[in-house]
Amino acid sequence: AVLFHAATGRMPFEGETALAIALKKVSEIAPRARTYRKELPGIWDEVIDRCLEKKPENRPQSANEVLRISRGKPTFRPTRRKVIAGSIAAGVAVAAGAGGIWYGTRKEIPAEALTAFKRGEEFLRRRDEQGLADAVDEFTTAIKIYPEYAEAWASLADAHAAQVHYVFANSAEALKKAEDAAVRALQLNNSLAKAHGALAFVRAADLQRWPEADALFRSAVYNYPNEALLLAWYASYLGRVGRHDEAIGHAQRAVKLEPGSSYFNLQLAVEYWRGLRLDEHLKQARETVRMHPKEYNAHLSLARALEWHRRFEEAEKALDVARMYDARERGRAYWVTLRAAQGRTAEARQHAEVIRKLWDAYTPEGKQDMHIEANVMVSVFASLADVGAVVAVLKTGIERKDSTVLAAATNPYMRELRRESVVREQLARVGLDRVYRA
């Protein structure tokens, strides 16, 4: 891309937004450089085309190799020592052939900015409400000190995306902040996997444009196959659209890369559940609890797995343990589904009414309990076979632009209810009728 710009004064892929450019990278072939500069020697097209190959292994592996291509010589794979020795000379020689040399240097990151960034990364790993809020503060501090800190912009995008994922912040505002931060990160450094993933996540959370996220995720995962966060985000997307085997495969890869992460282990458990691979779901939930015995969501995951195995007494014990670590009302939803599975409908409805009041009291300013998302409400009322309540939740969720509505079509509690025409009508409003048909 730098060579193309040096030769033509333009970028190989252009668009009004970073997302539009990313889609072109996935689906289009770049024009030849000589389209814009006919006086360029033909070898320029050969050099640039090789550098813009979609598959990384088909691109030159060093600046020395680029230089040899530019001289019409057979290419070879030099050792790392030779790459280091020849890279500066090769880069200057090729750029100079375009009629000018661009020197890019990165300033040293101020110590205060680096410290704030490292603190932010630690908070970000916690993936809880306060941790994410603190992470946003630390990354913002780092950026104020050093506005060109690309990694801090990318991690800020990640933090805002996580706030949306866990419904810790107003979705519309947090998504806009995530997108802005990701775009800024890519303007500073286009090779940051986290920023590419955040852009795909933002699109995936858009109730109308979510189908566009697949191409963005595929491109990001293709280029950064060992980024666990990307794999987990893509797994969540694939699970929502009913591509369960793919979702499980990506989640398994994320766990293999970072086996100690509660987030990735929980995501794998979710994908087993959505794919109705219930024995694996239970095994994964137990493993997550074993690794993270004080993790609230791990015990909720285990309770759900035990419920679906109809091991109700054990499920109740898991919920009691979860409540020891967090007393948020969101956990009450698991009591509803458990009581409904036991046939204790009256008790289930009592719990459901408490949750309904919190759901109805939601305000965009986030002054009410924001930990009860649309998909949780769908589970609550679908477990009670309450079609009217499920339809009402879907309607309200769509009005609020709650991205978790997009998980409703493949929510296992919805297996029977999604056959209802009034439910299918709501799913169709956000394009989920195609998922239902699948």
Spell out the key features of this protein.
single chain; 438 residues; mainly alpha; 23 helices
3D structure, described in words:
- With 438 residues, the chain is mainly α.
- 65% of the residues lie in helices and 0% in strands.
- The protein contains 23 helices and no strands.
- Helix 13 runs antiparallel to helix 14.
- The chain is elongated.
- It starts with a helix and ends with a helix.
- About 7% of the residues have low confidence.
Strand content: under 5%
Task: Choose one word for the global shape.
Answer: elongated
Question: Total helix count?
Answer: 23
Structure classification: mainly alpha
Q: In total, how many beta strands? A: 0
Radius of gyration: 25 Å
Low-confidence stretches: 76-105
Distance between the termini: 39 Å
The chain-level mean pLDDT equals 85
Helix content: 55-70%
Q: What composes the largest sheet? A: none
The helix/strand order is HHHHHHHHHHHHHHHHHHHHHHH
Brief overview:
The chain is mainly α and 438 residues long. The protein is built from 23 helices and no strands.
Describe the SSE topology.
Blueprint: H1 2-8, H2 18-27, H3 43-51, H4 63-70, H5 80-96, H6 111-126, H7 129-145, H8 150-165, H9 171-188, H10 193-204, H11 213-223, H12 228-240, H13 244-257, H14 262-274, H15 278-291, H16 296-308, H17 312-325, H18 332-342, H19 345-360, H20 374-383, H21 387-399, H22 421-429, H23 433-437
